[in-house]
Specification:
Structural class: alpha+beta
Number of helices: 22
Largest sheet: 7 strands, mixed
CATH superfamily of one domain: OmpA-like domain
Helix content: 40-55%
Low-confidence stretches: none
Mean pLDDT: 95
Shape: elongated
Strand content: 15-25%
Length: 546
């Protein structure tokens, strides 16, 4: 059997072994010829990967001749037979340059003999190991608004059935503050005075015709007063059409209802029910007056508050420009509020400076989950997993969320904690599409390329191209790579592998040259990468990897 060992035929699937999910699996179909297998012999067969500095054996398979009493697969002497074997071993990088051999040990009549190793395949392809471990942290958005609408309110009250503006009303605190506010808005270049609204009202008691005329007169006297005041402080926009908007309401039932709801009047629920039951103002007034005890209180406490004209000044507060924000961060960062700091960080492409802005926001506003989350995100992008973890854990202590949990998953993946990262990503799908990208990386690492393709979709990412390649969609992989932004070694290296698959020698050599220019460490990989086996003796290839 030893002398005729070369007569045994082996078919290895795949012909060159492949790493998937950190495992190398093999299927070997052996054909034993007729009159080979001794009827009384037992043969233990072990596939072994041999490489520099060591070897890794697959599980053994025992075979026996037809006269042996045992439970192993029998190979007949007269006809020979076919044997199938499947097994797997953990992958290590040295296996890329290796030989798969069959090691056999035969036993007969209490004696054993080890056959010389018999080579049946070369090397292990580990293209899946090109996966980029670049999980995406999710930033939390700022709420910065460059233009913020703001309003200031004040009102003057009238005596019953009167429309003249009393001087005592003009001394009230809210009127004085409104005047001051208008002056400031007119002088401050960061405040745009938009318009002024005058709303005049009569209380909902008495004849509606009288109230209509009364409210209209109050609109007129209020307008005359405010226009006079605006002229005094030289408001330029006073002459703009529509700067002052006037309206009046004959009977202020909405105001009546609001004040009633806030009051402690004994029969307020009954009165509010009347308002909901009747829409006719005459009926409403009649029904409320029928509640005689309550109406006396209403006449004293509610109705006087409704005989008024309301002034509303509307402005736009204009924030700093982008350039001003960036300059202020350099000169006086304390002058910026939380939203301004968070927004300023988005204007800065340099990651270290961006990190400094978020760190300032976190220091100034220690209860801001967004600041700490974004500190961690930038730290992760800079490759500082420890700093990122500290920041994300602080953010989580402030507010648990899908975003923060995804980002903790990013740190776990950066630290090689694959299962922990997968758990965090799976529970964080509400954080957006970046979570799917991160799960796609996990699935590539675990060798589940169908799931990876589902998570990555058709995004213009290197890992998307890699999955397409691993699923043997070489044209799709190349098309995706051509859309991937940036120049980096793995991008051109994968292009070179695709060219090798398609026997495009010039394209292979061109892209391999670019890959090595971007990342010189790829030379050592290319030397032993069985994806290039057919080109190992190409003089230009040899020149590139020497």
């Amino acid at each position: 059997m030893q002398e005729k060992a070369a007569d045994v035929k082996y078919q290895v699937t795949p012909a060159v072994l492949e790493e998937h999910g950190d495992v190398v699996a093999v299927k070997v179909d052996a054909t034993y010829p007729a009159k080979y297998f001794n009827k009384k012999a037992t043969l233990n067969v072990t596939p072994v990967l041999k490489y520099e500095g060591g070897e890794t054996a697959f599980a053994s398979k025992a075979l026996q001749g037809e006269s042996v009493l045992g439970n192993n697969q029998v190979v007949a002497y007269a006809t020979g037979g076919n044997v199938s074997y499947s097994g797997s071993v953990p992958f290590n990088e040295k296996m890329m340059k290796s030989e798969l051999v069959v090691r056999a040990e035969a036993s007969l009549k209490g004696k054993s003999l080890t056959f010389p190793d018999y080579k049946i395949a070369d090397g292990v392809v580990s293209t899946a190991k090109l996966v980029r471990i670049d999980p995406k942290p999710v930033m939390m958005a700022d709420n910065f608004k460059r233009i913020i609408p703001e309003s200031a309110l004040a009102d003057i009250h009238y005596v019953i059935n009167r429309a003249d503006v009393r001087s005592s009303e003009l001394k009230n605190e809210d009127i004085v503050k409104l005047q001051e506010y208008i002056v400031k808005a007119n002088e401050d270049p960061r405040i745009d005075l938009k318009n002024l609204e005058i709303s005049a009202y009569a209380s909902p008691d008495g004849p509606i015709d009288l109230n209509d005329k009364l409210a209209q007169k109050r609109q007129g006297t209020a307008g005359t007063y405010i226009e006079k005041e605006l002229k005094k402080i030289q408001i330029e926009k006073l002459s703009d059409p529509g700067f002052i908007n006037k309206k009046y309401t004959a009977e202020d039932w909405d105001g009546f209802k609001s004040l009633m709801e806030q009051s402690d009047i004994q029969d307020k629920d009954l009165i509010l029910r009347v308002l909901s039951m009747y829409s006719d103002p005459v009926v409403r007034e009649k029904e409320i007056k029928n509640i005689s005890q309550a109406f006396t209180v209403i006449a004293d406490k509610i109705l006087p508050e409704l005989r008024r004209s309301k002034f509303t000044v509307n402005v736009d507060k204009i924030g700093y420009s982008d350039d001003e924000l960036k300059s202020l961060f350099q000169s006086d960062p304390d002058a910026l509020n939380m939203e301004e700091l968070l927004y300023t960080a988005t204007l800065i492409p340099d990651l270290k400076t961006k990190l400094a802005v978020y760190q300032k926001a976190a220091a100034k506003y220690p209860e801001c989950v967004r600041a700490f989350n974004n500190v961690g995100s930038v730290a992760a992008l800079l490759g500082d997993a420890a700093a990122a973890k500290t920041a994300f854990e602080k953010a989580k202590s402030l507010k648990d969320s899908d975003v923060v949990n995804n980002n903790l998953g990013v740190v776990a993946l950066m630290n090689g904690e694959i299962d922990k990262a997968e758990g965090l990503f799976t529970s964080s799908t509400g954080a957006g599409s970046d979570v799917n990208y991160n799960l796609g990386i996990i699935k590539i690492i675990k060798g589940d390329y169908d799931a990876a393709a589902k998570y990555l979709g058709n995004s213009d990412e290197f890992n998307t191209a890699l999955v397409k390649f691993l699923k043997k969609d070489y044209d799709g992989a190349l098309a995706t790579l051509n859309r991937v932004e940036g120049d980096f070694g793995e991008k051109y290296y994968l292009k070179a592998i695709i060219a090798a698959k398609q026997d495009k020698t010039d394209l292979l050599l061109e892209n391999l040259r670019l890959a090595i220019a971007e990342d010189a460490s790829l030379v050592q990989r290319a030397k032993v990468d069985m994806e290039f086996a057919k080109f190992f003796e190409n003089s230009v290839f040899k020149g590139l990897v020497q």
